[in-house]
Amino acid sequence: MLDVILSQVASGLVLGSLYVLIAIGLSIIFGLLGIVNFAHGAFFTLGAYFALTLYRSFGWPAVVLSPVIVGGVGMIAERLLIRRLYDKEPLLSLIVTFALALMIEASVRLIWGGIGQPFSPPHFLGGFLIWGPILITKYRFAVLLTTASVLLGLWAFLTYTPFGRILRAGSRDAEMVGLLGINLPRVFTWVFGLGCAISGLAGVLAAPLWTVTPSMATNAIMPAFVVVAIGGLGSFAGAVIAGLLVGVVIALTVQFKPEASGAVMYVFMALMLLLRPRGLLGERWERFE
Amino acid sequence: MTESKSGLVLPRRRALLGAASLAAAAPLGRPFVANAAAEPIRIGLLLAKTGQIAPQTEYLAQGTYLALEERGNTIMGQPAELVWLDEPSPQDATQNMRKLVQEQKVCAILGGSLSSNALAEEATAAQLKIPFVCDNAAATDITGKNCNRYTFRLNTPVLVQSRMLAPYAMGYGKRWYFLTASFAFGQDILRSSRALLKEAGGTEAGVDEVPLNTADFSSFILKIRQAKPDVVLGGLSAGDLSTFLKQWNELGMKGKIPVCEIAIGDTDIWAVGKEAATGTYTALWWYKNPNNPPEEKAFAESYQKKFNRPAADKAWMGWITAKSLFESIELAKSTEPMAIVEGLENWKFISAGTSYSYRKFDHQMLLKNLVVQVKDNIPDQWDYFDVKASLPENSADLEKVFGTPEEVGCKMT
Question: What pLDDT, in 10s, does the model give residues B18-31?
Fold first, then answer.
């Protein structure tokens, strides 16, 4: 039985790592800009579709450009729409980003069509890795490694670079950072683009595993919100731990009570919030309290 | 000159008056038509616009619109139009059904993309006394114990399709693993297939009910891999089936354990891709079936011409149900609900050895089903299937295969 559980845990970690990537972008945007981005799943979908088009036109290496393009689209959306919401009621940002999500989904439907698009993992990542009782495909292992690398790079970027320090300071006291002569609106544009690019990357990684359809964000956005709520709003480390935990809990539920695997993350969230209302690593945020 | 002019004017006035009187009196001599002469005949379309079923409903809607275009957008010589509302959930679907009837004044409704929606919609149809032709849902109860006078259904019930598929699944062995969706459609498949397996003396290797919109099947596949069944009997719908097949291949299971499922949609398999596609399925229609009658070949051609891609089975399903409704209204010469119901009960499509009609006692369409298998070498992005059989082989057996009134359990209310 132990070998089955270990295999399920490995499988859950891969699913969790995708949730982490989606949730991290959401968490960064909320933590630094104070925007609850309902359109985040739509950027995930865009990542998958751009990857599909780039792959069909130029082959696998071109797929790496997909998150960059998604980030660019995110920056345009921020300049045109999102920045008007920073000092407004939170409800307005919910409504506007929800509308943006619908608009992106409709555009995807218009450009690529409504039916699912076939997309398989690359041949060079075909086959398995077997460690004792654990079996994992090379593609899924690559997803794990990519997620770990991105998270590490992001952490280093936010912790050690001057830009990262500005971001963190700006998220705590935007007015003070502005008084120091830093162009915060431009910084915010980059932050929103970065969050969207990470979501786009999750879309790229998920596309060969999930069905690529205009509504594929449905499978991504709710778990992402659950992960952010469990991890603690705006907490980087919290989102990572929560995402992996949610993935593992789902995988183990499939083993023992499969019909409950869709609902288990919500039960997990409810329990977690009962025990710790701010989430696992949630802090007190002056600007929101 | 004046006389001659007035002589000319008076008859013209009389003629105009006469024509106006005739035009005004004409409706009195015609059968009942619900809408005023200037108003078009409205037909409601109740299909999901988003969600995992949306790829299928896109085709259903296209087929429906094409059926109306074929008639020059007229019914009984009057302009006709479709009013399409969403069916995001059973509750919202029934609300939209009420809107269609009470606000849009439609005379009949086509739709029901998911079994859970269709079951709720058919009850509302009976309540509102509006003809409802279900074009996609396959749950047995729709024309079984939940049947009513106003509801007609195209898709072959789950139980009947399961009976047709069972011999092919048995061909792989008698140890089955059930992987079914945890809503009406999947639960129906599980119930009927389990009974068939028990009847045949087979054993269950495992049973997993899968929540709708599951993104990752790897945990389920690991369980199947460990259970080592002879065959996986699926009951997943639309996007979930595509995702499962992609991951089934990714985890190296394609070709190792066969997959069988009823009621596959072409869009489900097209989304999987050539590399990952596998399995044996039941289907209602396939655009490359050489036995399609001339009308259906013409439909497939006009669809291809209009949309620049082959007609999926769902496009045909939208087309044939809409055709049956439009022709029934024409037959009834009325938009009055009960006249349309009677029109549908008497509607028949017969061509080149193919016949379709709604059975009187349960309003279930009787038609042969195909057993299709994914080709070993798929030549292009559309041509995935070989037709293995058209069942039942003898058309005279259709009544029997679809079940007797006692077996079906339909008591018209």
Answer: 444 444 444 444 44
- Reported confidence tier of residue A237, pLDDT bands at 50, 70, 90: confident
> What are the residues whose beta carbons fall under 8 Å from the beta carbon of B407, sequence distance 6 or more?
none
Domains by residue range for chain B, with CATH? 41-156+295-363 (3.40.50.2300), 158-283+368-394 (3.40.50.2300)
- Mean pLDDT value across residues A105-124: 90
Mean pLDDT across A173-181 = 79
Interchain CB distance below 8 Å, A115 and B209: no
Q: Which pair of tokens denotes residue B165? A: 């598929």
For testing contact with chain B, the best of A49, A108, A115 (most B CBs within 10 A): A115
CB contact under 8 A, B214 and A211: no
Q: B218 and A11: CB-CB below 8 Å?
A: yes
What sign does the dihedral B228-B231-B234-B238 (CA atoms) show?
Answer: positive
Q: For A120, which of B209, B251, B275 is closest by C-beta distance?
A: B275
pLDDT tens for each residue of A38-78: 999 999 999 999 999 999 999 999 999 999 999 999 999 99
Single pTM value for the model: 0.84
pLDDT of residue B305: 96
User: Which of B50, B222, B273 shows the shortest C-beta gap to A215?
Assistant: B50
| Contact call for A209 and B247, based on CB within 8 A | yes
Closest Cβ opposite residue A218 in set B51, B218, B219: B51
ipTM value: 0.87
Whether B239 sits inside 8 A of A12 (CB atoms) is no
> How many structural domains is chain A composed of?
1
Segment among A85-89, A96-100, A197-201 with least mean pLDDT: A85-89
pLDDT in tens, A239-256: 899 999 999 999 999 889
- Across the interface, whether the CB atoms of B216 and A11 are under 8 A apart is answered yes
Per-residue pLDDT at B24: 45
Q: Return the axis-axis angle of helices A264-275 and A236-256, rounded to nearest 10°.
A: 130
Alpha-carbon distance of B265 to B210, in angstroms, equals 19
Range of A17's domain? 2-114+121-288
Is B356 at the interface with chain A, CB within 8 A? Answer: no
Q: Which residue has the higher pLDDT, A140 or B52?
A: A140
Q: Which of B209, B222, B249 sits opposite A8 (nearest CB)?
A: B222
Q: In B, which residues are within 8 Å of A8 by CB distance?
A: 219, 222
Q: What is the CATH number of the domain that holds A230?
A: 1.10.3470
Average pLDDT for B264-277? 92
Q: How far apart are CA A193 and CA A150, in angstroms?
A: 15
- C-alpha torsion sign, points A199, A204, A208, A212: positive
How high is the mean pLDDT of chain B? 88
Is the previous residue joined to B392 through a cis bond, with omega within 30 degrees of 0? yes
Strands (E), B320-363: 348-351, 354-358
**Dihedral angle, C-alpha A54, A58, A59, A65, nearest 10 °:** -40
Which DSSP letter does residue B136 get? S
Q: Comparing B29 with A132, which gets the higher pLDDT?
A: A132
Chain A residue closest to B56 (CA)?
A: A115
Average model confidence (pLDDT) across chain A: 88
Interchain CB contact of A45 with B (< 8 Å): no
Measured between CB atoms, does A139 come within 8 Å of chain B? Answer: yes
Size of interface A-B (CB pairs under 8 A): 129
